[in-house]
Structure formats: C-alpha cells, structure tokens
Amino acid sequence: IVLPEGERSQNYRAQTPEEGTLLATLSSMPQNADEIVEKSSLPIGAVNATLTLMELKGGAKNLGGGMWVKT
Question: Alpha-carbon distance 47 to 41, whole Å?
Fold first, then answer.
C-alpha cells in the first residue's frame, strides 16, 4: 500500500523481522543509514532494502541525503 504524499501511517506494523528491528531503531529524529546499521546490527543491504520498502508502505520516510525517520 502506497500512501499519498504527505500522509503518515501512525499505525504501521512490521511485516518482517527486519521491519520490526528498524521500527525499533527509527525515531522522529533523522538518522543516516550508517547510524541505523550500527544501532540495528543489520547488514547495510538489508537496511537499505527494508527502508525503501517501508517507505513505499508508509512506515519510514527518506528525507534525502541518506537521512531517515519513522512516520
């Protein structure tokens, strides 16, 4: 499910273990991918792929410059 631009999903639920880990790691404060990898202990490839899928589903937002927040 792709949400319209600007619409936030406050009830986003993890659909995979990786999403659950990233939901616990992300916050409303922007973090770059390296910080997320360090905090989550997930490999960079898994972090990037999962964040991209979470963004499409409304669980995360890419602010540009590699910075991510939870939506």
Answer: 9
